[in-house]
Fold this sequence. Notes:
The structure is a homodimer. The first copy, chain A, is mostly helical.
Amino acid sequence: MGRSKKASDGYHHGDLRAAVIRAAVELIAERGHAKLSLRECARRAGVSHAAPYRHFPTKDALLVAIAAEGFDELYRAGLAAMEGLDDPRDRLDAYGVAYVRFAVQHPVHLRVMFTAELEGCPEDLGREAFELLEHTAVAVVGPGVDPRAAAAAAWSLPHGLSMLILDGRIPAEVVADEAAVEALARSVYALWRGPLGGAG
Amino acid sequence: MGRSKKASDGYHHGDLRAAVIRAAVELIAERGHAKLSLRECARRAGVSHAAPYRHFPTKDALLVAIAAEGFDELYRAGLAAMEGLDDPRDRLDAYGVAYVRFAVQHPVHLRVMFTAELEGCPEDLGREAFELLEHTAVAVVGPGVDPRAAAAAAWSLPHGLSMLILDGRIPAEVVADEAAVEALARSVYALWRGPLGGAG
DNA sequence: TGTTCATGTTGGCAGTGTCAACATCGCATG
DNA sequence: CATGCGATGTTGACACTGCCAACATGAACA
Lengths: 200, 200
């Protein structure tokens, strides 16, 4: 039952903050967002019911921490996916596919990231990830287009697909495993490149 | 303080079911999804704390009722928007714009509709709205394309845009009022028709 | 007129978020 | 080495919640 690296296994936990986050993500995955309980997190981390309050002033603060974790990882996944690609459109595609991949790999995080309603949520949460997308979109559409509209358009597609998948709105066969999801994402982009988007 | 149409203003309420739903939507709009409380709904409806249980066996059942209401209205909004249009692409656009309009007009409903995680949620919740979209999308892309992929692609765009707006992820100026939102939706479609989608 | 049954009420239980008061221990300072 | 302080964890409490069981009311039908 190693409690992890440093800190005696006695009174103090050692890395309770991370342990609570981990427990919360597990709990949400098991029971759903609405049934998350700080006290249950504490139990799973092996501490008393009020211990998490030393690290998170409020339940919402815990969720904000999860969201921040998610945005950070999403940003890095986007960067990694676009690495080495030069054509703006290829880069945008790559980000989009990575976005959807992130969604199925970290469904709890994505859900929490876009649940807002969180009080005390820092204004610029997720800004890096957003700006990366906006710049990529602007590079595709050129300088004549309102960047905010370009960003909204480029963001909506992978975001919508991700949310629909998380909500179980996409038939199960089409999202059976990670490869299937990636294929779906690519074909969604292809459709908007082709018959859905192209000239009629 | 007329309690509405029939039913004496005494022991029995008359239309408690609808009153509870109304109160729940208000409450979520004010305090957020997570802080919805059946007891507070009961208070606002002017009944005792357990009265809602005569109409909803569980809190989730109340949310399912709200979602059903939303899907029904979304379906009818889509139908109305496409009425009189013949070109499949125009019809798909019209549905999409109506989808986003619905989102800003009924943010609570849309949020609840796509929160899933609801236990005892009927399998085919929202099927009408979905099938309408799928048929419209298939009419655009033709018979050679997997209908599930076509539906996913056509659905992702308005859904993603709606969710981003509800989450406050789109700059406030761009979604200041209903007209601005509609203009944004149209320009998102135009971008995927043009520089984002078209041949480079 | 009398009974039934949907609807509403009261009271209670276990669980929750949050707070205040207290306990323990690592660490820097003498 | 002693000491005391601040970060971290504990205990106990409060108001609130979802849900349940037992009871009350009254509208509609026999």
